[in-house]
Amino acid sequence: MSLEKFLNQVVSSWMSEEGPHSSFVLSSRIRLARNLKNHVFPIILSNEEAKSLVQELEQKILQSNKAPLPLELLRMDNLQPLQKRVLVEKHLISPNLAEDSAHGACLLSENEEVSIMINEEDHIRIQCLFPGLQLQQSLQLANTLDNWLEEKLDYAFDEEKGYLTSCPTNVGTGLRASVMMHLPGLVLTQQMNRLIPAISQLGLVVRGIYGEGSEALGNIFQISNQITLGKSEEDIVEDLTTVVTQLIEQERSSREALANQSGIQLEDRIFRSYGTLTHSRIIESKEAAKCLSDLRLGIDMGYIKDVSRNILNELMIITQPGFLQQYAGGPLRPHERDVKRAALIRERLKLESKG
């Protein structure tokens, strides 16, 4: 399969499209956790109960002719491990659903902006993913889907506590809002370590590219809310947007300072990374992430022309192990993945230059 055809099949809209403040914000995500009344939570569901719940939801949801948008059901037990890994790498399902839920499922929209996980930590997790800083738009779509589902399903809801969830930290709105940000300026000027504790004091949390427990590869950070109880959905989104807007301004100032104080060193770093990506025959994931971050910074600051800004979004995802093996057509050993990763990056950059 050609790389161009492969990309057309696997690249989600949040990877290939630009949104507001896309020089700093790669994507915005809203996730709503919901459970069904008179059903035990998924963490203690038996296999038969879990399987029955998927069938019940399929009947109530997919047979409706009034869905806000077309959705396709993917059952986890019908997918190969590699297929599930790719869905995780695209941020469409969680590692927990891929690894631990034999009778889990996912309802997926064609453009992959919407993913509704079934039998993850909660019975239902509605996710809407948009490019750039579009939390309000994501929330609007998530609420539309939530209202549509609530017409068919009896949610577990308490007048005082709000929506009931498996994890106490999600009780209330059940809302997790997050943005994925590229912050190389704050990292290179050594401000990020100081900012993370300050952000945490505001009721937000900073994580790596794949959420809790993951590393901030390529200077990519996820900023999300920790508090779901005692605040409205609108307040949560507004508070997060305010902090993200401040981070954007600080990142912009850091980039300007780098250009003014160490312009030639910064330019050298960027073009060395560009050269590594263009010519390497073997490259490990951490080195690739670092070089891709430098390349994206060079594009955003105008050092590198004629390369799409979305190159980071695409290559940070499609150079992950699952994607590499899908593109290769089968399993790869670690060294083989490093060789294939280098080849894929070279080919992608060559395809960019032809465009």
Automatic annotation (TrEMBL):
GO terms assigned for molecular function: kinase activity
Keyword Transferase attributed: yes
TM annotation in the entry: none
Reaction equation(s) it catalyzes: L-arginyl-[protein] + ATP = N(omega)-phospho-L-arginyl-[protein] + ADP + H(+)
EC identifiers of the protein: 2.7.14.1
Record's keyword terms, sorted: Allosteric enzyme, ATP-binding, Kinase, Nucleotide-binding, Transferase
Pfam family, one: ATP-gua_Ptrans
Residues the record lists as binding ATP: 27-31, 91, 125, 176-180, 207-212
Top-rank EC class of the record's enzyme: transferase
Motif (RDXXRA motif of the pArg binding pocket involved in allosteric regulation): 337-342
Record-linked CDD domains: bacterial_phosphagen_kinase
Keyword Transcription regulation in record: no
Domain Phosphagen kinase C-terminal: 24-254
Activity regulation (record text): Appears to be allosterically activated by the binding of pArg-containing polypeptides to the pArg-binding pocket localized in the C-terminal domain of McsB.
Segment forming the signal sequence: none
PANTHER family (alphabetical): ARGININE KINASE 1-RELATED (PTHR11547:SF38), ARGININE OR CREATINE KINASE (PTHR11547)
Family the UniProt entry places it in: Belongs to the ATP:guanido phosphotransferase family.
Function: Catalyzes the specific phosphorylation of arginine residues in a large number of proteins. Is part of the bacterial stress response system. Protein arginine phosphorylation has a physiologically important role and is involved in the regulation of many critical cellular processes, such as protein homeostasis, motility, competence, and stringent and stress responses, by regulating gene expression and protein activity.
Protein name in UniProt: Protein-arginine kinase
Source species of the chain: Bacillus carboniphilus
Name of the gene encoding the protein in the UniProt record: mcsB
